[in-house]
Amino acid sequence: MISVTIDQLYAWINLFIWPFARIAAMVGSAPLLSESAIPARVKVGLSVMLTLIVAPTLGPMPSLSTASWSALWILGQQILIGLALGLTMRIIFAAVQTAGEFVGLQMGLAFASFFDPATGSNTAVLARILNTVALLTFLTMNGHLLMIGGLVRTFEVLPITITELDVNGWGVLMEWSRQIVVSGLLLALPVMVVLLTINLSLGILNRTAQQLSVFAVGFPISLTVGLTILTVVLPQISPFLERLFQEGYDTMGQLIQALAGQ
Hints:
73% of the residues lie in helices and 3% in strands. By secondary structure, the protein is mostly helical. It has one domain (6-259). A two-stranded antiparallel sheet has the order 1-2. Helix 7 packs antiparallel against helix 8. The model has no long low-confidence stretch (mean pLDDT 83).
């Protein structure tokens, strides 16, 4: 007769539930994988499948009761790690959407917004377009596979233990979050410079020819010039996005090393 002790049962449950918490938290917060268009069952199924693949390769787990406070503390840590990894890549797409907001504001399209189910708020049209371009570039680079591969390697650098996470890791995430504004401005800078020049020219024209209505002429000119510049700039942003994605992968590694106290 096969007999299973309670300690063995706890070990089997912990071997699955702790890695599952880290993986599911990243799947639920990472770009592309966390899109609202993907059913929740697919996300859970992907997390379970990855856990079943990764769990047998992990080292020995802490011998704790699954319902103990120490085990719940480890579970909470794994959720925080997964969320931090997902947010690291999510910041890149937030920077792209910020660039779309800046460009749309300069073009006079601040009012052109619609409800975005992915964020649960109104999003500018240009921000949504740039976000779609970034997602397609992300897929072209197999970024989702590289992101999952980086997640799996985190179990080697930061194994599941009862020790506390180093607070310096959260500092790495906070420092990386500045890319939302910095990279967003760099991405939108070519269009913003041209549109700013157009606005300055229209201001001078309004002072010299006051009978000309700048409000009637300025909006069509800004919109036409902005769309023309976008047709030139959009095909050229792939190298910028590729570099930004690579920096995101590197930041994921730095985040895990900092959380591990290395």
